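Late entry, evening session. Most of the bench is empty. Finally got around to the prediction I had been postponing all week. Sequence below, unchanged from the version circulated by S.P.
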Amino acid sequence: MKAAEGPRDLAYRGPMRIVVLVSGTGSNLQAVIDAVTHGELDVEIAAVGADREGTYGVERSEDAGLETFVVNFNSFPTRAEWDAALTERVASYAPDVVVSSGFMRIVSADFIERFGGRYLNTHPALLPAFPGAHGVRDALAYGVKVTGCTVHWADAGVDTGPIIAQEAVVVEADDTEESLHERIKVAERKLLIDVLRRLAVGEIAAPSSDGGMRTSAF
């Protein structure tokens, strides 16, 4: 398939087209699949991709009849070569938005630019507090009484980029990392679906291909 040059022409009117990237079980992804299946979310999941073989996120996507792909990080001699291959594979689906759903790889600025800055990420903390792979653990260790989740436009940093929406989650006195993370995941799934819905109908702004912001629907 010939790779597209980036997001579709924004004059095109139709369901917002997304590619979802996963590294693990894809629980957020499943919530999106369910919302689309039940008619609660008017987006088209063009494909689901992973950075390694054998992820349950890919398996559950195949079970749902979605197209999947793997660009295995360990199959490339350098990060730059992997990133370039991932960029081309994602671009081949001409997404309007790329969604990081527990995708545990940092992509390059070139990847971000290729998709007009429309790379959406979820994080289990109230950014800019507690970025990185252990946001829940770090929040609990710090002793905060409230944490939560964030959906934001990702840049090439670690959990940085413009924040779109956040949801607070109260830390209970007897919380473990696991119990707190489970409650955050519930809030995170709802927040992601709400953000995608609002993006799809133009209620919130999405970056434009020239680096500005646009508010019209896809």
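Two things to note before I forget:
The radius of gyration is 17 Å.
The longest helix spans residues 177-200.
Will write this up properly tomorrow.
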